[in-house]
Amino acid sequence: MAMADIVPTSERTPLRIALFSGNYNYVRDGANQALNRLVGYLLSQGCDVRVYAPKVENPAFEATGELVGVPALPIPGRSEYRVPMALSPRVRRDLGRFAPHVVHVSSPDVVAHRAVSWARSRNIPVLASVHTRFETYPQYYGMGFLEAPLLAGLKRFYNRCDALVAPSDSMVTLLKEQGMNENVSLWTRGVDREIFSPVARDMAWRRSLGIADDEQVIGFLGRLVMEKGLDVFSAACAELDKRGVKHRVLVIGEGPARGWFTERLSNAVFVGHQMGKDLGRAVASMDMLFNPSVTETFGNVTLEAMACALPVVAAVATGSQSLVADGVSGKLVEPGDIDGFADALSAYCTDPALASTHGAAGEARASEYGWDEVNSAVLSAYCQLLAPQG
Fold first, then answer.
1. Residue 233: which residues within 8 A CB-CB, separation 6 or more?
2. Rounded CA gap, 86 and 113, in Å?
3. DSSP string of 259-314, one letter each residue
4. Tens-digit pLDDT string for the chain (390 aa)
5. Is the pTM higher than 0.90?
6. Beta-carbon neighbour count of residue 93 at 10 Å?
7. Any idea where the Glycosyltransferase subfamily 4-like N-terminal domain is (predicted)?
């Protein structure tokens, strides 16, 4: 079915999508990079897209498409992030003029709730994309008692939407089991093979950081925030030190927990935030990726490391389970199992041939993830919501 054939207008016209995001480009992360790629794809397919999200003076990167600012306030204690506060009269007027065929919400914040209400009152279908497991966050900040009410709130929000898309089969299954919505489909993630490739490995760059050629490098890639499992990462590396397993740690990323992380990783090299070819070089110059996080719904960093032919040690969690084949392209360990993570890392540190074999399997798996094919699933989901129901 052609896109124009299902748009409910008297004339053949571009599909109009209103996308709501709590963070579209002011701080770089995997979720907003996926959204920007999606918008770029939709525009290339002839759609009209208008993005509603907080704006800042100096965003992390230029937004793809037209961005309309919504009122927002900094999050206490995490001021780099903004909380969208209201669907203001100005934004409502803009939304009315745009007259979207579909509303897409990507974070369960106040503005997204209001956008869902706005759409439902006008019989406009709503698609929600799920990018992170918000219910897992409280445990990292000593507030585990909030998990149950947070789950209940998420359930109310997602059941007000007509359909959900999630980035991994394991996350699709979990959302259905949690009762978030019955209509959940897959919107996975892609990887840029021009950036993430084994050929980007640069031993001279490693040497410039003081890393010897024969040292096994355990890599961390991501925002330096506690919910990424920094405590588990540092504890597993400390266990390797205790066992006398030689290794170096390479940390790619920035964030408010950098000081905490630095104190606990005595032999680590911190290279900060990297972009484009520099990021590809840094990832390919690791010998393995260690991703202990359980908050991701997909794990972009895991796929990027696999594309660079690195074995991955990851927690048994949504996302990683759909990417890493345990004992084939990496090792999956129960969340928080410090000895288990140390065992898996030690195996790769002491057996480079095993690391190479598992890395090659990961690269083969990563070759299946092309961005256009991935993003076409979201366009198909929009079309299904607009198709006449028989």
1. 220, 290, 292
2. 10
3. HHHHHH-TTEEEEE---HHHHHHHHHTSSEEEE--S-BSS-HHHHHHHHTT--EEE
4. 344 444 544 456 899 999 999 999 998 888 899 999 999 999 999 999 999 999 999 999 999 999 999 999 988 877 788 889 999 999 999 999 999 999 999 999 999 999 999 999 999 999 999 987 655 554 655 666 667 877 889 999 999 999 999 988 888 998 999 999 999 999 988 889 999 999 999 999 999 999 999 999 999 999 999 989 999 999 999 999 999 999 999 999 999 999 999 999 988 999 999 999 999 999 999 999 999 998 776 778 999 999 999 999 999 987 788 899 999 999 999 999 999 999 999 999 999 999 999 999 999 999 888 888 899 999 999 999 998 765
5. no
6. 10
7. 29-194
Q: Give per-residue burial for 256-290: e unless 16+ CB within 10 Å, then b.
A: ebbeebeeebeebebbeebeeebbbbbbbbbbbbb
CA distance 128 to 122: 17
**Domains of the chain in sequence order:** 3-190+370-386 (3.40.50.2000), 198-366 (3.40.50.2000)
The tokens 């219910």 sit on which residue? 135
Can you give the length of the chain in residues? 390
Nearest to 172 by CA among 35, 293, 286, 322: 322
| Side chain identity at residue 33, one-letter code | Q
Spell out where the chain has E strands: 16-20, 48-53, 66-69, 72-75, 78-84, 102-105, 126-129, 163-166, 184-186, 217-221, 248-252, 268-272, 288-291, 312-315, 330-333
Q: Which amino acid is at 341?
A: F
